[in-house]
Each structure stands twice: as structure tokens, then as C-alpha cells.
Amino acid sequence: MSRPFRRSEWGLLLAILVVFILTALLDDRHIYWHELKGLFSGGPNPWYERIPSGVNIIRQTAYLGIFAIGAAIVIIAGGIDLSSGSVIAFSGSICATFMVLLAPEAMKSATPVGIPVIVLAIACTLVIAFLIGTFHAWLITVVGLPPFIATLATLVGLRSLARAIVETVTAAAWGGRSAQISMFDAQFRYLATSIWIPVLLFIILAAAAWLLLSRTVVGRHLYALGGNEQATRLSGIHTDRLKWLAYCISALLSAIAGILYVGEQSGAYPQTLGQGYELNAIAAAVVGGCSLQGGIGTIPGTVLGVLFLRTVIDGIAKIIKTGADVYEGMIVGSVVVVAVALTQFREASKRGKQFFAGPMGTLTMLNLALLGVAVGALAGLNVTITVENPFVEGAPPTRMNVATWIGVKLLRIDSMQTYLTQRFKVDSLGCYVLGACVGAAVLGIVFILQRIEKRRAHVVTKD
Amino acid sequence: MHVPWKALIPVVIACALAAGCGSNEKATAVRPVSTSSGSADAGEKRIIIITNGDSPFWTAARVGLQEAEKELNLAKSGLRASLEINNSKPQGQIDLLRQYATQSDIVGIGISPVVADNVAVAEEMRNLRKKGVHVITVDSDVDRARFRDARYAFIGTDNLAGGRELGKCALGLRPEGGQYVTFVGHTGAQNALDRVEGVRQGAGPKFKALDNMGDETDPTRARDNVRNAILNHPGLTTLVGIWSYNAPAIVDVVKEKQVRKNYNVVVFDAEPLAIQQMGEGYIDAMVVQNPYQMGYQGVRLLKALYEKDQATVRAVLPNEGQGEGDIYDTGIKVVVPDGGSPLRGEMFDKKTQFLKLSDFREWLKKYNLTGS
Amino acid sequence: MISIEHITKRFPGVTALCDVDMEIAEGELHAVVGENGAGKSTLMKILSGVITDFDGRLVLRGQPVRFQDTRDAEEAGISIIHQELNLVEQLSAAANIFLGREKRNALGLLDDRAMERSARGLLAQLECQIDPQQVVRELRVGDQQLVEIAKALSLESGILIMDEPTSALTESEVARLYRVIARLRERGVTILYISHKMDEVFRLADRITVLRDGKKVKTLARSQTNSREVTHLMVGREIEAVNFSDDRRAGAVVLEVRNLSLAWTGHARGWRLRNINFQLHRGEILGIAGLMGAGRTELLECLFGSSPETPTGRILLEGREMKFTHAAEAKRAGIGLVTEDRKRLGLFAQMTVEENVTICALRDAARGGIVRRRQERLLADSMVNKLAVKTAGVDAPVISLSGGNQQKAIIGRWLLTKPKVLLLDDPTRGVDVGAKAELYRLMHQLCREGLGIILTSSELPELLTLCDRILVLCEGRLTAELARHEATEQRIMEAATMRNEEKSSAP
After folding, report:
1. Count of structural domains, chain C
2. What is the CA radius of gyration of chain A?
């Protein structure tokens, strides 16, 4: 726990590399490859313009990472913070609102507002974030709400409060109600659009968090709190103050992220900003080794978790050219499940646990088979996988096409009935028959495997 | 270990099956897509149209896009066109544009920006143009005062004019004047701003605008907005839908509350559902855009720019270089029910096509569309 | 009737059982004794179907059997009463008894009435007066245990395994349990009895098997041995009778309690503690005896500031009045509490031995809030050495320690805070004989160094051995204060069960 790099973190690093290589190979444009070549071969552009994908990944890692650290700290302390996304929306909107209040004409006419205004707005936003964290801590320690409920309340409430504030202030300051505030100020935006500021901020915050958790007395107390709250209290430690600290850190980091996002998107959109982001942060923390029970997890692990998630998402976008976000949710979801399950797998299989026993086991295998078919079919129908030879110019690509061998053909009819899917008509009976055979074969294999597993477990009941 | 290899078997089978049935992504209409031996993927370039959000409006645009692909024979030029559905957030468009900036095979992008004055989106567009990618806007433009240079041209409806026609509809249906509420998705989108302003102009001084309600493309919120409007404004006479899905939202609530007699319903766009509802008598007038042309001309223009085909470019933008020469107006229609409508073609602008519902349906069938 | 043949069970890193052979005759009460870690629980888990993956053979009534799960074992007639009771606290006694085998009526729905009737009958056989519909959480531990035994009875098990059954019982409940066991034996039930307590073992058992370090040492007939020999076999060495006589002198008064009262809202009695007055001297071990519910733990909590309600009265530490609202204040003032139930309230299971030991005194190893590793290691090492904590290293996970060593580690944790008063709540619970002796020696040593100790325990012999004075609580009142020379088990029991009488005068 206080040791630098655990085994699972090396595993995560390896996983990132694997995803990177997979993307590089499967992407028929070989963008990563070209970018790496461009990076080393030089050229007139500055180096960061030669690796736009790399820059994208790093930038998104920095944004997500900043508030994922907050999520990790709260999880390690035994709590959970579901409100990160809403705090992002709220703080971003509040910052923009302050700027509107302090410099209404400048904000409206897109002239620079001046650094003092920016600094003041940011400072006020951070103070408000501190108050939000305090509010969470109060709900949890004094009122006694479970953290899930307390932060769920702010998840729902802050966003609508943000909207109300934005609409009221824009109506008052500009005379016309607006549900969002556009951010034109170049200096403010520079905070986010210059790559190095968010990255530097992320590195500093991560280092500070790492120092706090692994080297300070308070950090040790946070781990203890997450591991066993009662024992911590009975060891003479102020658990309420620790929780206050944890939730304030989380709120402050989310606020910083919110300010950056507003700069990046050049607008405060309280309704949609950061929607769902808290789950990304929690997923990153969990993939990076934090346990939702509390008391376990590290900052380096979380940082790697963020990097991993962003690499996967970028990989998906590269491999699935158009409509990538359709698959993004599925793939990120399964990746998170697999990442966490792998650690459980290793433990459980050591104890000789069977995973596909009994009726639930059979159905699970069926489940996985169907999922596999569905995903495979979707991928097969929508994704082109071409294997090119990047080392030889003009070498023709090879394509895998089992269809010809089986004599299966597909027609594609574009239909106006639905706008998201395109219907396919199978023009060969063979495919139906094939599908049925495969289905039967899968079931048969499942059945046989289950019997083998059962026999191996020596079920010999008495009598 | 008991586990891993067993779990892999069904997945492997599934993947084999799926990979076998894999087709390629050439968007063709009705053409057997079986084995293609080493097609032209190797140097294939892409043209992408990015929507603002997800709605049936873009289905018509997609048809236009695919027709253009076929008729203009994009394949021969090594081009592919596709539609990218955005998640209605500006962040989504920023991410997409950034992602496309990393991909060297993209040569043309058409985008309908969610928010007109978003600096980040404009910057990404400029960035792409600097790299040599051709960028145009469709359906909704960027803030022309600030970001005109971020795109080569705008293909879409003159939304101000469209709004005016809609306002004239309202006036025509109720010459003594009245009060109206406009319902829209993103109040900050340029097309939304233009249309609302147009409605105000077209309806004239006798009409009072009570509210402009945004729903951020959430159909449930759209309906809630209509309910609240009816509840809060007893003097309300006219319900005005600005975006395509606002029409069915308005009609659903009107049906639910059974207050059809109390209100005039005038809407923008003709979703399939809205067309049906006009046939049932629930909608008094529709101002219809031509998303089909947006898709079609968008692909045509981008292809022409890519191939440096000056002739075609000038055909699309004859007044290029002058004033509003970077705008291609895809035209508007006004559609009214077959019988009993007090609206006449003369009430509207010369350029606007005035159609009865059945004629409109004929037009749709000709182009193989179910809505527009 | 049960034959255990060449059973070996290996866990990653440790061999829990190594080639154990045992035979249990039908109808006998066979005691299994051994230190913590000797393998008793593992053996019982194998017998009851909790562990199914082992080498060796189980033969039941002449037939080799292999259990797939606990259900198989239950069907074979083996039930186990765990030391940590396996009841669902939110359900009623009757529901727990029939859990998993609920009675149904003709429509297939739950037949609560039949279950209640059955339960009442079973509980009556066990001299248990509770209402079968009462929620288990509200029952006393002794009654909860009887519910578990009732469950085993309802299964009509021929073989009952009882794991440390009396560890949480009061004397009268223990007596009741003995009677129940006698009745079970009359019915021919075979009982496997695991216990640390020699007096119980020698009172009940027909034969005794001693396990040590996963191997069977010897099986003896009770009549042919004595407790000394058995203890010797268990630990492999002689346990010297420890002499805790006046090697130490009581010094000045370090803690004084005046009129301490703790309200009990919503309860008939109204008070958890009422008008407690006593003094603690330096270098003295003060024992607190009493039945369950008498208020021993509550008293310690009040002294430590961790009581959920604030007590009234005065607590003076070294003459200065203290009002603690949080354990942190007590810690700073110099009072430490080693809680009962170390697993739930004391240990940080995910942390190492070092981290567990230094958690309370971490600031001493830190400069400017940042922990200095070397200082921390020094602190941890010092305690581990001083208390002779047997561990594979201070970096070992704390859960790898045996119960006794875990307890030592927690005591070490509090010693690092340099306390003036150390409160120990049932510290030798779940600790084997050898480790217990070490803890006694440790406490004695600490007192010699000037610490004042307050100790609660349910084991009267322990209190009599260790304490200089013994306070007896009965239903929240202090009913007796006995000095070492005048304390006997008899007098303590009388004071603990006194009803509404005046406090017996003490010199």
C-alpha cells in the first residue's frame, strides 16, 4: 500500500501497451505508426503538432485525471462521490457566472475580461467548491446519510441549481435569458487549450495527492478510515475531520476540472457538462486498483487507470471510424469489468472455485456466447479490418473473408425507417442454417464442458 | 485452471462467424456486398457529415448523402461519405473534430454546430482547414459575425426566411393576432436563433412572443415544456415548433390534453410522425426544410472542393466572393393540410414552395423519403 | 463411528493439517484441544462440509464419504455450532432454526405457525425461555447459542460439533449448556467439543485428542490424564504457574471516578451505569467482573470517551478533571483502550503489522506531517521486540498473526502512546493458553513499570490471578469491591447477581 509500484500496476502498464499496440495494428490507417514516425523524423512543425493523437490522449488524461484523483481519495477513505460530474457542471457554470457578473459587457461582446476578473472568478469558484465538499461531509457525518445518498442528492440538485443560476444571471446582466454562457476570453481559454497547463496541473496535483496518501500521517489515517472506520475512531483519530478533508478534496478537484472544461469547450453548458463523468472517474480509480470497500488503492494506480481508459477510448475511435461512440460505452464497460474481474479471478481460482457450475453456470456460458455473437456480428458488419503491410509501399492489403468459402452473401438495403441502423437482408439460406448449426454446436460444447467440470469435482454423494 | 479456455470457445466461434459475414463499409444502396478482392481501401478518402444530435431529420440528410455517393460516383474517385451522429453536446463535436484531425484520410467535413458561437468548435474547424481539410457547415451555421472564416460555405436553410414563413403561417391562421410560445432544442443554436427571430418578424406586431423554451433535445423535456406552457399561459393561442421533433411533442401533449380546438399548431420540419399527424388534422402548417439537399449538396460541394472541380463549386455557389455568396439555400416549403386551410400560396415568399399535404407526399415518394 | 484417515489440507503458504488420523466413537463426547493455529477449526470445517478440497478420507459409519457442501454434511447427520454464530440477526429465532428448510403449508406458502410450534418445543428441551418469534438480534448471546443448537436438533443430527461454545456465556448459561449436553448425550448424540478450557474439557469429555501444529499429538481417555499433561501436550512445553503476588506496589492515585452514571434511554432499567465510584492507582491491576450486560464495556467506553452518550459524573486523571467527547482526547490525555472484538473494532485487516502498531502514535514518527520511514520502523520494531510478537516480519499482513499475537500488537499500539492508564476489554478472548500466559506476564511487567491497568474479563480465575482489586458490577451498579486476599469466585458471583441490595462494604 505504501510501496511504490505493485504488481497489479505493472499489469496495468502492460495492458496500456497492449491496447496501444492493438490499436496500432488494427487501425488500417496506422495512425499511431505514422505519428511516431513523424515524431522522430522531424519536420517544420513543433513536436506536439506531429502527434495529434498522443496530444489528445494526454490532454484528456489530464482532464479526467484531475478529478479521478479526488474520486480515488474518497474511495480509499471508504466513501464514494457520485457528484463529480455535477460539481464539474456547477463550478464551471459558477465560474462563468462570476465572470459575467464582474464583466458583463466584455463577456457578451467577446472582448477580453482581464486577468484580475479571471483570477477572482476562479478563486470564488474554488471557495464554493470547498463549501460543497463541506456540505457533503456535513450530510454524511452529522446528518448520517450514507455517502451514496448524500452525493446522489447533489448529483441531481447541483446541475439544476447551476442552470437556474445561469439563466437568472444572464437575464439580469444581459437582458436575455440564456441556458448557457459562451466563453470567448482567450486568456481564460488558454488555461485549458494550452496543453501544458492542464498536464502540469495534473502532474502537480497527482504528486501532491500521492505524497499525502503514502507519506503523511493524514494519509495513513485515511487508509485506516477506509479499512475499518470503527477501529480508526477507537484509535483516537478524528474520523469526521478526515471525511471532511476527503470530500473537500474531491469537490475542489472536480471544480478545477470544471473550470478547465469550460475553457476547453469555450462555454458553460450546465445541463450537459460533465454528464456521466463521475462514473468515468470511479471506473478509472477501480481499474487502477482502488477497492470500493475502502482502504485499498493508490494514486499511481489511478493515474494509470485514467491513462488506460483514455487509450482504450482513443483506440475505439481509431478502429471504428464512424459512429465510435455507439460502441464506446459497451467496450469501456466490458473493459472495466474484465480489469476488475481479473484480480478476483486470480484469487478465486487459487481456491479452486468453479465458475460455470450448475444451472446458472450453463446460462452464463450461453450468455457469453450470445454476447460474443452479438458483438462479433455488430463488429463484423460495421467494422472493416484490413491487414496492411506497413513496411512495403503499395503492398495490397489482405482481407479475411470466410464468407466466400461458405458461400454466404449479404445484401445491404438502406432503409428510411430507422436512422441509426441499416438493415441487412441475408440472401442465402445457408446463413440461417449455419447460424442454427453454430448455435447448436455452442450449446453442445457448453453442455459437454459442464459435465467434464462436474466430473472433475468428484461429486460422489453418499448412499 | 478451470476457467479461461472454456469461456473463450464461444467467443471464438462467435467472432469467426461474425468475421466471416463481415462486409465492408462502402455505403451503397442496393448492391450485393460480397467478396471484394482488394478494393480501393488502400488510398480511400472520407467525407463526413457531423450532425448536431440524433433525430429523424438527419435520416433524410443521410439519404441525400447516399444518393450523392451513388450518382456522383464517389467510389470512382476513391471517396466514401458517411454521417456521424453527435451526442447533442458541444464537447462531443470538439472531440470528434479533434479525432478527425488526427486521421489523414479525411478530406471533407460538414458540420451542424450545436452552439453557434462556441469558440472551441470554430478553432477546431480552423485547425482542420489549416491542415487542408475542407470544412463546411450544414443545417446550422456558425456565428457569421465571428467565425465566418472557419468554414468554406454554409449549405442549409435560410433560417431567418424560414422563421418568417412560419410566422406568416401563424398570422394567416389567426389574422386578429394572438400569443405564441416557441419550442426548440438548443436555444443557442444559430438556426434556432434565426428561426425564432424570423417568426417574430413574420407574425408581425399583432402577435406576442410569450416564451422560448429549450429542451436540449430531450423528447421528454420537450413534452414537459409544452405542458408547462399550456398551464402557465391562459392567453396562449399558437404553439410554434422550431426543431423537427418539437412537432410530435406538441401534438402528443395537445392530444393528451384534448385541447386541439384551442390552439393553432405550426411547426418546422416534417418528421414522418408529424406528416401522419397533419394527415390526422393535428397540425395546421409545416415549414419544411430540405435536409435531403443538405446531405446531397454537402457531399457534392466537398467532393468538388477536394477534386478542385471549379465548375461544380461555382454551380453550387454561383455568387462566391460576394456578400452572401458562401451560402447555398436549400429552400423551404410550406405544407398545409389538403382541405380547410385558410393559407394560400400568395401569402408567402416567391421562393417558397407551397404544397398541400398529398402533393408533399408525392414529392417525398419521388425521392424515396419518409420525411424531411 | 467417524473415522478420519490421513487427512491433509494445504493452503497457499501453510499446511493446516498434516496426516491427521482420528476416530470418534458413537455416542461419546470427544474433546479436541490445541492452541490457535493447531488445526482444530480446519478439521471441523472439513467434517462439516465447509472445506471440500483436501487429501485423505472420511469414513462415516463404515462408508467413505465426500461432501460437496455443507448441505451434504447436514444430510449425513453432521451439524456444527460455530464459535461465531451463524444466525441472521434480523430474522426471528424460529425463522433461523428452519432457515433453508422452511415448513410449507398445503398451498406452498410459509407455515409460520407450524414452525413456531416446532421451535417452541425444541427450545423448551434446551431450557430456553425465549419467544420463538423474537428477533435474534435482541437475544442474549447465550440464547442465541441455544437457537443454533435448536437448529442442529431440528436437523436430528447424530453428530454435533461445538466450537468453543462457552466463550461468550455467563456462568448460569454455561451450567444450562452442560445440562443440555447431558440430555443430548442421553439421546445418543455424538459430540465433538472444541475448547481451550481445561476444566470444561475434564468435566465433559470421554476422550481428548490433542492437536499441535496441524498434527495429531495424542488421543487420551479423560480418566487417564490430567489438565497439566494435556496442556503440556498442547504447547509442547511446561506452562509455569505464574505467581503474581505483591511483586508490585500500588502507587499514587492516577484515575478517580466519582458518581459516574450513564443513562439508557428507552430501557426499563433507565441506566446502563449508576453512581460508579472508584480509584485506580499506578502499578495496579484493577479487574471488573460482572455478568453480560452489567456494564463493563460501557464503563470502559465512558473512561475512554468513546461512549455514544455522554456520561454524567466526574472523571479525574491525575487529579485533573477530564471531559472526553472523543477518543482522541482520551488518547492525548494518556488513556488507551484495547477493545473487545479485535477483528471488528481493533485491527486494520488490510494493513501490515507495522502499520497496525504505529497507527496511534504516527505523529511521533513524523516530521511536519510527513512520516519518516526509519522512525516508524524503529517504533514498530521496538514494540514487536518488547512484547515478543511472533511474526514473519513487521511487513507481514496483520491477519497472518495468531490471535494472541494480534492482541499483543494492539497492546503495543497503545503502549506507543505512552499511556498513564490502559483499559483492556476482555483481552484474552480467543487467545490460546500459551499466549494467555504471555499476556499475563506482560500486564504484570507493565504494572511494574508504573502503568495503571483496568481489566474486564468473564473468566473469574483469570481475574483472581491477575488483579490486585476486583470491582463487581451488577446491572450497572457497583456492588462489590474486593481486594486480592478477600476475593473468591463465590463472592464475586454473589456480587454479580445481587439484586437491589446495598453495595457490600469493602475495606
Report:
1. 3
2. 26
Closest CA to A292 of A140, A73, A136, A80: A80
What share of chain A has pLDDT > 70, as a percent? 76
* Interval A106-131 mean pLDDT: 92
CA atoms within 13 A on the CB side of A121: 28
For C375-392, what is the mean pLDDT?
90
A462 touches chain C (CB under 8 A): yes
Residue written as grid cell 471525511: A243
Shortest distance, CA A72 to any CA of chain B (angstroms): 25
Task: Report yes or no: B330 and B158 within 8 Å, Cβ to Cβ.
Answer: no
Percent of chain B predicted with pLDDT > 90: 44
CB contact residues (below 8 A), chain B span 307-336, against chain A? none
Query: Own/partner pairs for B145-154, CB < 8 Å, 24+ apart?
Result: B146/A110, B146/B117, B146/B122, B147/B117, B147/B122, B148/B326, B150/B122, B150/B123, B150/B125, B150/B126, B151/B111, B151/B125, B152/B301, B152/B305, B152/B326, B153/B301, B153/B316, B153/B317, B153/B326, B153/B327, B153/B328, B154/B326, B154/B327, B154/B328
Give the chain A residue whose CA is nearest to the CA of C372.
Answer: A215
A176 reaches C (C-beta below 8 A) = no
pLDDT tens-digit map of A377-427: 665 555 444 444 445 555 555 444 333 333 344 444 433 333 233 333 443
Complex ipTM tops 0.90: no
Name, in order, each residue with C-beta under 8 angstroms of A64's C-beta and a sequence gap of 6 or more: A257, A277, A280, A281, A284, A306, A309, A310
Q: Side chain identity at C159, as an amino acid letter?
A: I
CB < 8 Å to C328, chain A: 236-238
C268 and C284 in a single domain? The answer is yes
Looking at residue C244, what is its pLDDT?
61
Beta-carbon separation of C72 and A237 below 8 A: no
Which chain A residues in 429-458 lie under 8 Å from chain B, judged by CB atoms? 431, 434-435, 438, 441-442, 445-446, 449, 453, 456
pLDDT score recorded for residue A224: 93
The reply to whether C497 falls in a domain is yes
pLDDT at residue B318 greater than cutoff 90: no
pLDDT of residue A201: 96
User: For testing the chain A interface, which of B15, B17, B182 should be mutated: the one with the most A CBs within 10 Å?
Assistant: B17
Residue A176 distance to chain B (closest CA, Å):
11
Q: Among the listed ranges B260-274, B300-314, C97-111, C317-331, which one has the minimum average pLDDT value?
A: C97-111
Instruction: Give CATH 3.40.50.2300 domain extents, chain B.
Output: 45-157+292-329, 159-288+332-366
Residue-wise DSSP of A61-97? HHHHHHHHHHHHHHHHTT---TTHHHHHHHHHHHHHH
| C-alpha–C-alpha distance, residues B106 and B61, integer Å | 20
Q: Which of A304, A320, A350 is the last residue of a domain?
A: A350
Span of A228-237, B170-179, C98-107, C418-427 with lowest mean pLDDT: C98-107
> Which residue type is seen at A94?
I
Quickly count: other Cβ atoms within 10 Å of residue A201's Cβ: 19
- Shortest CA distance from C341: residue in chain A: A231
Domain B45-157+292-329 has CATH 3.40.50.2300: yes
Per-residue pLDDT tens digits for C474-486: 878 898 899 888 8
Q: Domain containing A55 — which CATH number?
A: 1.10.3470
> What is the total residue count of chain C?
507
Among C47, C61, C351, pick the best mutation site for testing chain A contact (most A Cβ within 10 A): C351
CATH architecture assigned to B159-288+332-366: 3-Layer(aba) Sandwich (3.40)
Interchain contact, A384 vs B24, CB within 8 Å = yes
The model's pTM: 0.76
Task: Please indicate if any CB of chain B lies within 8 Å of the CB of A345.
Answer: yes
pLDDT score of C500: 47
